[in-house]
Write a structure and sequence with these properties.
CATH superfamily of the largest domain: 5'-nuclease
Strand order of the largest sheet: 3-2-1-4-5
Oligomer: single chain
Distance between the termini: 84 Å
Number of domains: 3
CATH architecture of the largest domain: 3-Layer(aba) Sandwich
Number of helices: 14
CATH class of the largest domain: Alpha Beta
Number of strands: 10
Shape: elongated
Helix content: 40-55%
């Protein structure tokens, strides 16, 4: 939760008051006027507040990264100065003021290597710090899931930006450079279908980049020795200890054989389908007629078609239905239901298994009905 502007301004005012008070005390200690010390203290505090306002987009994580980089740079400078370049007699003879030059040289080395350490640390990702401090992770990082590698198919698919926006996927998502290059080639393809798929993938990445709680990084390892993209992806996942997000079942099988965890979005979509059993009561929007004049057809969120008997007059509205049974066909699963009001009055009719399929537009055959015998069998 971000702090409010009132609380931040209150902290700034308190800091300015403290600097003014300290300035007055210092001035009185030196026998000067108290108000002069207050003015100097206020100017000092105002300059610090101005620097803080300039760094308002600089996070604590960036500050910690810069501190570690500064420590590494100063340590490298200390190692360089252990050479004792100015203790060489030849240098002492050539430079009359070798002592002063030595101080300037040491200050220059510390400043240069400290600056380089800070800048390199700020440009580095969180995963790269495990090389400096291995086996050390903050609690927040330990709670995060493993990094997630995405392949070209799942980016083009278009579902991963929406899934990330819901908050189900968070943390670090790594996009390999060869995947980004493949998307770029598709976006510049003369084929309009490939060009549209490439542009959709790049737009999806831009949406993910602006998703809160999501850290998008591009891994620069191209692995030019390998030709197959799937092989590159699996090898990179094993090296980084990451998972793979894909909708390619074959890639998922090969990756699991090599010990890589896979998130298959097709498996996720199948797992999210609602489980409907006979006797369940649902609220359904009826959109069109069925095969028989008295039937109405509606659809579940996953596209499953439901045929409702004796509901033709309710088309265009929402109705409470009771599931009666299901039928698995080559075009998908069909669900047959009755109106809830009919089930309460006990006027359920036998479901007719004849409805129009959404994909093939074929008529489903009616279930055969047993004919009543012409006469009752004689009792023995």
């Amino acid at each position: 939760m971000m702090p409010s502007a009132i609380s931040l301004n209150a902290v700034r005012v308190v800091f300015l008051c403290i600097t003014c008070l300290l300035g007055m005390l210092v001035a009185l200690g030196f026998g000067a006027e108290a108000y002069m010390g207050g003015i100097v203290g206020f100017c000092f505090g105002a300059s610090v507040v101005a620097v803080e306002l300039l760094l308002k987009n600089f996070t604590f994580r960036g500050f910690s990264h810069g501190t570690i980089g500064l420590m590494v740079g100063l340590f490298c400078a200390w190692l360089v100065l252990r050479v004792d370049f100015f203790d060489n007699p030849w240098v002492t003879e050539k430079l009359e003021s070798a002592g002063h030059m030595r101080q300037v040289f040491e200050l220059l080395v510390y400043t240069t290597l400290g600056f380089l350490g800070v800048m390199l640390a700020l440009r580095s990702d969180r995963e790269e710090f495990s090389f400096i401090i291995p086996y050390v992770r903050f609690r927040q990082d330990a709670l995060q899931e493993l990094p997630l590698l995405v392949d070209t198919n799942i980016i083009i698919d278009g579902r991963i930006p929406r899934v990330c926006a819901t908050g189900f996927l968070s943390g670090s998502i790594i996009i390999p450079r060869f995947v980004l290059d493949e998307l770029h080639v598709l976006a510049d393809s003369p084929n309009p279908l490939k060009r549209e798929r490439g542009k959709r993938g790049l737009e999806g990445l831009n949406q993910m980049k602006h998703t809160p709680g999501l850290h998008i990084t591009v891994h620069e390892d191209r692995q030019e020795r390998e030709e197959l993209t799937d092989t590159k992806l699996i090898q990179l996942a094993r090296r980084l200890g990451a998972r793979i997000a894909t909708n390619d079942s074959n890639l998922g099988k090969v990756a699991r054989l090599q010990g890589v965890q896979v998130l298959n979005f097709n498996d996720l979509a199948r797992a999210m389908r609602p489980v409907v059993a006979p006797g369940d009561q649902l609220e359904l929007m009826l959109v069109k007629e069925g095969k028989d004049p008295h039937q109405a057809v509606g659809y579940l969120p996953d596209g499953t078609m439901i045929v409702v008997n004796h509901a033709a007059e309710r088309i265009g509205g929402t109705a409470e239905i009771v599931v009666g049974g299901t039928l698995q066909t080559s075009a998908g699963r069909l669900i047959f239901a009755e109106l809830a009001e009919n089930s309460e009055t006990g006027t359920l009719s036998e479901p007719a298994l004849g409805a129009e399929s959404t994909s093939s537009k074929e008529r489903a055959p009616r279930s055969p009905r047993a004919k009543a015998p012409s006469r009752l069998p004689e009792s023995v």
